[in-house]
Design brief:
The protein contains five helices and 19 strands. The chain has 284 residues and is mainly beta. The chain folds into two domains: 2-67, no CATH class; 76-282, Alpha-Beta Complex (Fumarylacetoacetate hydrolase, domain 2). This is 2-keto-4-pentenoate hydratase/2-oxohepta-3-ene-1,7-dioic acid hydratase in catechol pathway.
């Protein structure tokens, strides 16, 4: 199933995509956000499917305003340097333990919404990434059963303010400027993709030029391993997000550097998950 969060006349709403149309689940009595359905587990997802099978009203996708699939996760954990080639271009040795940092909901927007270059920097970089959404709570999860805890996947552009990222040994500032990243266009349940979302082509394009082109099979720490290691520290709960890292080709590593500026269009496409597209704007 493919869920889309969107803006309706009465506020945020949740829909289930069927082809090029959307069933308004919220109008049919279900929650306005994805999180409550995820907390209900299989029953919540089945309820959405049942409503879609009974509801005949459809909204054309071209008419909706997309919102990020999730906007209030208990935790959004991003992974740095999770591809060997990206570690190399960033002048780091490949990590033997995941490089982890937080990403705050105020730092992302949905599909088609502008991402914002802050007034204090010109070093605004793109990072196309696979996003994992937890659907079943757990602590000390074994890697052998970790994928049972995955509800589904999406796409994330981990927009980074590079000069602020390197002001200290902690990356938080450079990774959390308001509206600097994006998330979407939809949440895709795990059963629609290969186990662990392996073998999917990930491509980032800036103004139509391919900047990143890799496979999710090339991640140093795969989805199951990330879940197992992260859950050693704290319980993962439904709606938690793991932003699983970017491959080589980032703007900061290019000669000359290729940073995003107002008027640009950044697209991240992952096989089976769709296309996340965002224009770039300067902070007002």
């Amino acid at each position: 199933m493919r869920f889309i969060a969107f803006s309706s006349p009465s506020g945020p709403a949740l829909g289930l995509r069927l082809g090029e149309e959307l069933v308004d689940l919220t109008d049919a009595g279900l929650p306005a956000t994805l999180e409550p359905l995820l907390r209900e587990g299989a029953d919540g997802l089945q309820a959405a499917k049942d409503v879609a099978n009974k509801t005949h009203a459809r909204i054309p996708l071209e008419e909706i305003i997309y919102l990020a699939p999730l906007n209030a996760p208990a935790k959004a954990i991003a992974v740095g340097l999770n591809f060997v080639d990206h570690a190399a271009e960033s002048k780091f040795q490949p990590p033997t333990y995941p490089v982890l940092f937080n990403r705050f909901p105020s730092s992302w927007v949905g599909h088609n919404t502008p991402i914002v270059r802050p007034r204090v920097s010109t070093k605004f970089d793109y990072e196309g990434e696979l996003l994992v959404v937890i659907g079943k709570a757990g602590r000390y999860i074994d890697a052998s059963c970790a994928l049972d805890h995955v509800a589904g996947y999406s796409i994330f552009n981990d927009g980074s303010i590079r000069d602020y990222q390197t002001k200290s040994t902690q990356w938080m500032m450079g990774k959390n400027f308001d509206r600097s990243g994006s998330f979407g266009p939809e949440f895709v349940t795990a059963d629609e993709l290969p186990a662990g979302a392996k073998g999917l082509r990930l491509q980032t394009r800036l103004n139509g030029q391919v900047m990143q082109d890799a496979s999710t099979s090339s991640m140093i720490f795969d989805v199951a391993t990330l879940i197992a290691l992260i859950s050693e520290a704290f319980e993962l709960v439904p709606g938690d997000m793991i932003i699983a890292g970017t491959p080589a080709g980032v703007g900061a590593a290019r000669q000359p550097p290729a940073f995003m500026k107002a008027g640009d269009l950044c697209e991240v496409e992952i096989e089976g998950l769709g296309l996340l597209s965002n224009p770039v704007a300067d902070e007002g």
